[in-house]
Amino acid sequence: MISTHQDATIGEVFFSVANTYPTRPFLIAPANAEREYNPQGKLLTYDHASKEVRTLIVHYKKAGYGVGHRVALLLDNRIEHFLHKIALNALGVCCVPVNPDYKARELAYLIEHSQVDLVLLLSKRLGQWEAGCREANRRPQVVIFEDFELSLPTASKPATEYAPHSETTASILYTSGTTGRPKGCVLSHRYEIAAGEAYVNHGGMASFRESGERLYNPLPLFHVNASILSFYAVLLTGSCQVQTDRFQASRWWEEVCETKSTIVHYLGVIIQMLHLQPIHVQEQNHCVRFGMGAGVEPHLHALAESRFGFPLLELWGMTENVRILVDNQMPRQVGTRAFGRAYPGLEVRVVNDLDVDVQDGQPGEMIIRHSEDCPRRDFFSGYLDDEDATELAWRGGWFHTGDVVIRDDTGMLHFVERRKNIIRRAGENIAAAEVEAWILAHPAVAQVAVIAVADEIREEEVLACIVLKTDQVGSKDEEASEFTVRSIFDHCTSGMAYFKAPGWIWFTNSIPTTGTQKIQKHTIFGPGIDPRTVPGMRDLRAWKKRNFVKK
Predict the structure, then answer these.
(1) Are strands 504-507 and 459-468 parallel, antiparallel or unpaired?
(2) 20-73, pLDDT tens digit by residue?
(3) Is 285 inside a domain boundary?
(4) pLDDT tens column, 227-261
(5) In which domain, by residue range, is 350 found?
(6) Cα–Cα distance, 278 to 503 (Å, whole number)
(7) Residue 179 pLDDT exceeds 60
(8) pLDDT value of position 122
(9) Quick one: CA dihedral 183, 189, 192, 198, positive or negative?
(10) Burial class of residue 134 in the structure, from the number of CB atoms within 10 Å of its CB (0-12 exposed, 13-18 middle, 19+ buried)
(11) Residue 110 within a domain
(12) Which ranges constitute the DSSP H helices of 115-259?
C-alpha cells in the first residue's frame, strides 16, 4: 500500500524517490537501429535523472519561469519529455504536451486556447510549429531541444512565484470535445500523483513488487495513459518506465524482452495486431507479469492471454479522472468487457437519460464521483476557460462520463459503448463534430454526417456520409468522381491530423434529419446493415496509411 501524498508536489515526490532508490533504473528508451537519435537505446537511473532535472531547474528558473507560465512540449516520445516536465512542474510551471500529428490549423487552436508562453520542441518540428503560429493570433517563444542551454529565452512575463502546491496546475491535456474543438483538461499536482497512487494500490493481479517493475508503454506522451497513469505508478514505487517511440507490432517482443519489461500497457488495437503477427520466438520467453489496458476484443481476450502467457487486465479511465477501475481480482470475467468494480474514493452509478438509476443488468451511462462529501476530489480541475462545460459534466454532483455500461449483480461493470459523439480509432478519441466542421468547409460539400464504423484492426474507423452541392460534378451520380473524393480527402489531411481523416466516404442524395433539422445518424443505415457493404462506399484506409507513413 503506497502512502498518500495528498499535499505533496511532483518535484517533492520525485526527489524523495530519487534519494531512496538512486541506483535503480528510472527511464529506458529501447534500442532501435532505425531511430535517428540514440539508436543503441538509453537508460537513466534515478540518480542520473535527478541530476539532470536539477540542472534543468536551474536553467528554467534563471530564465524566469515559474508559477503562472505554461510551456508546450513537442518532444514526440523521447524520455527527456519526463525530465523537462518534472523540472518545470517543480517550479510550478504548467506543461502542455502537443500531439506531433497536429496540422497547422490544429496547432493554431492549441496555441491560442492554451495561451502557452514557450514551446520546447525538436528541431525537426520547428517548421510545423511555425506553420501553426502563422494561423494563430499569438506567437509563443521557442526553445530548440537540441540547443536548449543556448536558446532558452527569458520569460516574457514574470513568474508569480517558484513554489507550487498540490493544487497548482501541472498539465493541460487536450481531449476530444464532443461538440467540436478539443477541450483542455486542467490537471493539478494532486491529480497526477493520486492517479499513480490509485494504480499501484489496486493490488491483486496488478500488484507492484517492492523490488520495482519495468513498465513498457508504447502509447504517446500527449495522452494521459503514458504521461500520467503509468508514469506516476512507476515513480511512486521506484520502478522504471520503458518508453518506446511508438507501437510497432514487428518490434514489440524484441523491445519487451530486451528491456526485461514486467508490465506492458496496451490498447485493443495492439492486441489485435500482435495476434495477426506470426508466432514470435520471444512471445512466451519474456518477464511480463501482466498487461494493463482497454478495448481487447472479447473473442480474443482468453486466446491472447493463452498465447502470450500473461493476463490482460481491462481497465477504465479518462483524462478527466484516470484513477482507474480495473478487473484485477480473481475470479476475473475474461471476454465480457468487464473493467472492475467501484471502490472507496471512486463511487459509480449507472443511470438513464434523466439521471435515474437503472437496474443491474440494464445499460446506462456511468457517472462517477470521489464521495458524497467531496465529489470532485482528485478529479481534473476543470475544462480550461469553459466553466459551463465543466458544470454540465458535473451536473447533480456526479461526473457524467458519456460511457454506456452494464453493472451485473456482483457489482462488476462491463463496457457497452460510448454515448458521446466520439469515434475511437486505435486509441485516439476523434470528435465527429470537429471532423464534420472541417469537411463542411470544402466547397463541394453541402451536408455531412460523420459516424464510427467497425474496423477489424483499429476498433473503429471514421466514416463520412456526404451530400454534395448540386453544381458539383457527380453530385447526381451514384458514385462521385475520383477527383471529388481525392479533393475532399486531401482537404481533410491538410487541416487535421491524419487519423481524423475519413477512412470511408459515402455520397448520398440526402441525410435524414428531425423536424428541427438535427441529423439522425442512427437512421442513415438500417438496423443490422454494415455500412462498409453499402453500394457506393469508398474505402480510403490505404490513403490514410500512406499519410501516416509520410508524417
Answers:
(1) parallel
(2) 999 999 999 999 998 888 899 999 999 999 999 999 999 999 999 999 999 999
(3) no
(4) 999 999 999 999 999 999 999 999 999 999 999 99
(5) 341-420
(6) 26
(7) no
(8) 97
(9) negative
(10) exposed
(11) yes
(12) 126-135, 148-151, 189-201, 224, 231-236, 252-258
Do 64 and 165 fall into the same domain?
yes
Distances 218 to 26, 171, 173 between C-alpha atoms, Å: 16, 20, 18
Which position has the grid cell 464521495?
Answer: 371
Nearest alpha-carbon partner for 423 in 536, 314, 502, 363? 502
SS3 for 374? coil
| Whether residue 352 sits in one domain with residue 245 | no
With a CB cutoff of 8 Å and minimum separation 6, the contacts of 177 are 183, 389, 431, 433, 434
Query: For 394, phi and psi rounded to 5 degrees?
Result: -100, 15
Domain co-membership, 394 together with 453: no
Do the Cβ atoms of 238 and 20 come closer than 8 Å?
yes
Nearest C-alpha neighbor of 435 from the set 489, 385, 472: 489
Q: Which residues contact 351 (CB under 8 A, 6 or more apart)?
A: 357, 358, 364, 365, 367
Interatomic CA distance for residues 102 and 76, integer angstroms: 12
Model confidence pLDDT, tens digit, residues 399-430: 999 998 999 999 999 998 777 677 889 888 88
Within 10 Å of residue 281's Cβ, how many Cβ atoms?
10
In this structure, what C-alpha cell is assigned to residue 236? 511512486
CATH of the domain at 95: 3.40.50.12780
CATH number of the domain to which 389 belongs = 2.30.38.10
Task: Work out the widest C-alpha separation in the chain, in whole angstroms.
Answer: 71
Cell of 126: 520547428
Residue 302 within a domain: no
In terms of domains, do 429 and 536 share one?
yes
Report pLDDT digits (tens) over 73-106: 999 999 999 999 999 999 999 999 999 999 999 9
Phi, psi values for residue 127, rounded to 5°: -60, -40
Looking up cell 438535427, which residue turns up?
518
Please check whether residue 117 is in contact with residue 143, taking contact to mean a CB–CB distance below 8 angstroms: no
Residue type, 214: R
- Structural contact between residues 314 and 339, judged by C-beta atoms closer than 8 angstroms: yes
> Is residue 151 domain-resident?
yes
Cα(328)–Cα(340) distance, integer angstroms: 7
Residue 132's closest CA among 532, 523, 391, 497? Answer: 497
